[in-house]
Amino acid sequence: MNYEKYAEIEEESQVDMTPMLDVVFIMLIFFIVTSSFVRETGVDVTRPNAETAVATEAGGVQIGISSNNEIWIDKRRIDPRAVRANVEKALAENPGGAVVIVADEGSNTNILIKVMDQARLAGAANISVAAKGND
Where are the transmembrane segments (predicted)? Predict the structure, then answer.
């Protein structure tokens, strides 16, 4: 028998997996780059109830106001004077993004108004205040 002939056939029948792996890695990089990540405020709040609350998609900038009137963005406590700069930076990264203020029901309304003003001065066109619906 001619065993050399069979050995040549076996070597020729192997499939090169390199191009397939290249395509898989390129797709993985594409999905990582194009995915959007939800940024949390970094503080737990009890949102007030509202009968007219409407569910919206999480996106843009989320600003948290705790019950002791601390302001949080991206899990960092910030000074009220720094709200404008942080919102400007976030809007530069995500143009046209909305600003959602998640204020605790025990927080001071004065702080909420200051945060809204600073967000508006930063160029935010769409500002919302988060509430809990009666579902």
Answer: 20-38
In terms of residue numbers, what domain contains 90?
37-135
* CA-to-CA separations, 76 to 33, 65, 80, in angstroms, rounded: 24, 12, 12
**At 128, phi and psi to the nearest 5?**
-130, 155
Show contacts of 51-55: CB within 8 Å, 24+ apart: 51/133, 51/134, 53/131, 53/132, 53/133, 53/134, 54/133, 55/133
Separation CA 75–CA 2 (nearest Å): 72
Structurally, how many domains does the chain consist of?
2
For the stretch 106-127, pLDDT in tens is: 888 888 889 999 988 988 888 8
Radius of gyration of the chain (CA): 26
pTM given for the model: 0.58
